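Consider the tokenized backbone below.
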């Protein structure tokens, strides 16, 4: 435990972190990869280039400082990050490297303002926080390895089907190369792929939501090809999967993980809202609800640019035909001639209020601007926070900025 003086010093740095947090974390990652380039085999390079990881770490450090006297307040965030760390292969021996580099970055950015007292206090605080992460992650590694069909680290899977779902989205069906059983999962969770495309110096690791209900002898992921656009480089892994991976390709996969999961302990209505490829975890939830809670009222709302870019549409339509409690709606931003849809443009609160139950459990996923709009609408509708659930693809961000 930290003494009161250390807590006071950490809390005194909150205003500084609010101003310089992202600069500190940007400096941190630069130092980290310069001194330990092998860690580039773990970190998402695209998130680094786009500044997403730096912002996410800055927010995490700030939250730790604010709650340093009540670290239990950030336990949900610790668990969420620990899920991703386990899936990526982050190990206890990585934490001292990170701690040493973070303190060096604080000193470099703050200069003389980073007094020995402040650095010592943050050193102590980091040790406590690191221990919390390590203990949670050790347990998650154990759970993954000891689960029925589970395994530790990465396991080889073979692509046995590759199905084009829309112009830019393709599903990959993955079966274990060893022919053994596989871990089950909760609807909404993801698996993690580790690949090394030709010409790449380092391995690349990505999380992909499982897009079908659990219980199959395979995993299915549904991936959007991220092409170069608006000065944003093409996605290394998504491009590799679409263009270079075929039936028979072997991929390295870590066991299912994730905190964005369907609550099946209740039977209140459910509203699922997806944007673009954000439908992947929600389709898993939808299939699960249809098979395991067929009497539960479900409303599924999907937004896409147009019908040409609408993936898994036939699957959802088939579920509607078989489930009287399931209602679906489609919103197309720029519909093509001949498209069948319920609303042009964007999902908005007036439309939501016509088609959804305000007393439902709400789950949504999609591009960040889409999620910000949905989150704002639900808050305006006075939906309680405890009935609002969402998932970021990539580092956690904010829906209120």
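A designed sequence for it:
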């Amino acid at each position: 435990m930290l003494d009161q003086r250390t807590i006071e010093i950490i809390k005194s740095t909150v205003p500084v972190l609010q101003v310089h947090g992202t600069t500190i974390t940007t400096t941190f990652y630069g130092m980290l990869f310069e001194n330990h380039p092998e860690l580039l085999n773990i970190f998402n390079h695209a998130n680094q280039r786009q500044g997403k990881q730096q912002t996410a770490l800055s927010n995490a450090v700030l939250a730790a400082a604010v709650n340093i006297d009540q670290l239990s307040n950030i336990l949900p965030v610790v668990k969420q990050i620990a899920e991703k760390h386990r899936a990526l292969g982050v190990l206890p021996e990585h934490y001292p490297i990170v701690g040493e580099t973070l303190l060096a970055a604080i000193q470099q950015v703050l200069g003389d303002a980073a007094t020995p007292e402040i650095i010592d206090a943050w050193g102590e605080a980091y040790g406590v926080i690191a221990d919390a992460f390590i203990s949670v992650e050790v347990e998650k590694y154990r759970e993954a390895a000891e689960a029925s069909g589970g395994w530790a680290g990465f396991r080889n899977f073979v692509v046995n089907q590759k199905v084009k779902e829309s112009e830019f989205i393709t599903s990959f069906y993955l079966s274990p190369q060893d022919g053994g059983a596989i871990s089950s999962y909760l609807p909404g969770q993801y698996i993690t792929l580790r690949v090394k495309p030709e010409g790449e110096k380092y391995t690349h690791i990505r999380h992909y939501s499982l897009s079908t209900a659990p219980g199959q002898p395979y995993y299915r992921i549904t991936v959007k090809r991220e092409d170069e656009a608006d000065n944003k480089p093409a996605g290394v892994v998504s491009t590799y999967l679409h263009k270079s991976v075929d039936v028979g390709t072997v991929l390295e996969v870590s066991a299912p993980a994730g905190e964005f999961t369907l609550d099946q302990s209740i039977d209140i209505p459910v509203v699922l809202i997806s944007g673009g490829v954000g439908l992947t975890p929600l389709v898993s939830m939808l299939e699960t609800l249809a098979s395991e809670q067929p009497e539960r009222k479900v409303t599924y709302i999907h937004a896409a640019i147009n019908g040409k870019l609408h993936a898994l549409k036939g699957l959802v339509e088939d579920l509607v035909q078989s489930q009287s409690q399931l209602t679906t709606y489609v919103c197309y931003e720029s519909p093509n001639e001949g498209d069948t849809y319920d609303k042009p443009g964007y999902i908005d609160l007036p439309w939501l209020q016509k088609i959804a139950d305000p007393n439902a459990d709400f789950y949504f996923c999609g591009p960040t601007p889409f999620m910000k709009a949905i989150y704002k609408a639900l808050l305006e509708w006075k939906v309680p926070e405890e009935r609002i659930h969402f998932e970021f693809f990539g580092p956690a961000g904010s829906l209120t900025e």
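The longest strand covers residues 154-164.
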